[in-house]
Write a structure and sequence with these properties.
The chain has about 425 residues and is α+β, with helices and mostly antiparallel strands. It has three domains: about 20-135, Acyl-CoA dehydrogenase/oxidase, N-terminal domain (Butyryl-Coa Dehydrogenase, subunit A, domain 1); about 155-270, Beta Barrel (Butyryl-CoA Dehydrogenase, subunit A, domain 2); about 275-425, Butyryl-CoA Dehydrogenase, subunit A, domain 3, CATH 1.20.140.10. It is built from twelve helices and ten strands. The strands form three sheets. The chain has a four-stranded mixed beta sheet with strand order 1-4-5-8. Strands 2-3-7-6 form a four-stranded antiparallel beta sheet, covered by helices on one side. Helix 4 crosses helix 7 and helix 9 (about 360-385) runs antiparallel to helix 12. Belongs to the acyl-CoA dehydrogenase family. GO terms for molecular function: acyl-CoA dehydrogenase activity; flavin adenine dinucleotide binding. Keywords: FAD, Flavoprotein, Oxidoreductase. This is Acyl-CoA dehydrogenase.
């Protein structure tokens, strides 16, 4: 079997031999659907390396996890074993030192393999939630956390969303009250926290100054990197039953005077909202990549079925009523792909090029997430319809893809809020909310 090697100076993980899936309905959709012209050699190498790991976890694996709902710990471990969890983290901390563009193509490849949103979400927070920590964390915080995250010893979750504020992040109510010894006591509730059941660490956004006491709404929030110690008082989790991506847990997390040490604080107290913005644009890119992967996977399944399924003595793909919607879905995915990797490239370049404004990055990342989510939804819906009645059957997988394709349209920011953002920031229209 062929083995690949990387330039050690780039710190890239190693590639491993490709495994051959066995079950008829467990193979992933062909990945050659996406045109790869314009990607860098490094990005294509990432795609190949991650593909080889994903080939060991075929659709049958994800189908079973979707039904039984265990955590994909062995998938997470496989990616960690070859260093992929540190793809966008500094080499000085054991990462690969690559950018969000490379992380995005990794997430797309995972979703595209048939793992879908479940596979991507199992490592999603490890990639994006660590970006603010890597940039603003103290040397001691970085040394004590990042290597364990990269190695797979610690899983990570991101604690921002609350049931009573939703997308109105500046009105978060979870409070971290400072104690005389410098520690904090956290009280409040977070919701839709992915992988909280298996996470050792949470990147938590909490209010350290009451809203009525700050001069600007963006002040008074602080970011923490905390232990999720379930043996200590003041911490409770409740798993949420959900439509799709059921292999990864989503949770309500309750804090009741949960004690965290002073050294949990990331960056400056009261500046947490500004800090997490560095992770939010990165997450938009990763979600866009995951949506693309899901869409290409569904489209590949649909095209294969349309070539093989014979009705009225000819393949159904010969009918333009089948062919044209799939061709249209392909072009929409390709257009969203261009927007996604343009946004990721801008994000990476903005770190070193002061000429690239952060508002430009925000517009590009939000636009990419919107376009990719919409393209994925269309591709997944048409994949189910192309399969007809069999699109409703578990063994063809497209029903699972369809259930999961709603996630990128909703999270981490809704399509309507992105439209609001573009209306205000680009078109300079009055704010509507």
């Amino acid at each position: 079997m062929r083995r690949f090697s990387f330039l050690p100076a780039r710190g890239l993980p190693r590639l491993i031999p490709r495994a051959t899936p066995s079950a008829r309905f467990s193979t992933a959709a062909p990945r050659q659907l996406m045109a790869t012209a314009g990607f860098t050699e490094t990005q294509l190498t990432v795609r190949e390396g991650v593909s080889q790991i994903c080939a060991r976890f075929p659709n049958s694996y994800w189908r079973e996890l979707d039904q039984q709902e265990p955590d994909p710990a062995d998938f997470h471990a496989a990616l960690a074993r070859d260093g992929w969890l540190g793809i966008a983290l500094p080499e000085s901390l054991g990462g690969s030192g690559l950018g969000i563009a490379e992380a995005t193509i990794m997430m797309q490849t995972i979703a595209e393999s048939g793992a879908g949103m479940a596979g991507a979400q199992s490592i999603h927070a490890n990639v994006y939630a660590t970006q603010p920590l890597a940039r603003f964390g103290s040397p001691a915080q970085l040394r004590s956390t990042i290597p364990h995250i990269i190695s797979g010893k610690w899983r990570v979750c991101f604690g921002v969303t609350e049931p009573n504020s939703g997308l109105d992040t500046l009105r978060l109510a979870t409070a971290a009250v400072k104690q005389p010894d410098g520690s904090y006591r956290v009280s409040g509730q977070k919701i839709w926290i992915t992988c909280a059941q298996v996470a050792a660490k949470m990147i938590l956004l909490a209010r350290t100054t009451p809203l009525e006491e700050v001069q600007k709404p963006s002040e008074g929030l602080s970011l923490f990197c905390i232990d999720l110690d379930r043996s200590r008082p003041g911490l409770e989790m409740r798993r949420i039953k959900k439509m799709g991506g059921r292999a990864v847990d989503a949770n309500e997390v309750f804090f009741d005077n949960y004690s965290i040490p002073a050294e949990s604080l990331v960056g400056t107290e009261g500046q947490g909202f500004k800090i997490i913005l560095h992770g939010m644009n990165a997450e938009r890119c990763l979600l866009a990549g995951e949506a693309l992967g899901l869409g290409y996977a569904a489209l590949g399944k649909a095209a294969a079925y349309a070539r093989e399924r014979t009705v009225f003595q000819r393949p159904i793909g010969q009918n333009q009523g089948i062919a044209h919607p799939l061709a249209d879905a392909y072009m929409r995915l390709e257009a969203a792909k261009l927007a996604t990797y343009h946004a990721a490239r801008l994000y990476d370049q903005s770190r070193t090029d002061p000429a690239i404004r952060q508002d430009e990055v925000g517009v590009a990342c939000n636009s990419a997430k919107y376009l990719a989510a919409e393209a994925a939804f269309q591709a997944c819906e048409r994949a189910v319809l192309t399969h007809g009645g069999m699109g409703y059957a578990l063994e063809y997988d497209v029903e699972r893809y369809f259930r999961e394709c709603l996630v990128p349209r909703i999270a981490p920011v809704s399509r309507e809020m992105i439209l609001n953002y573009i209306s205000e920031r680009v078109l300079h229209l009055p704010r509507s909310y």
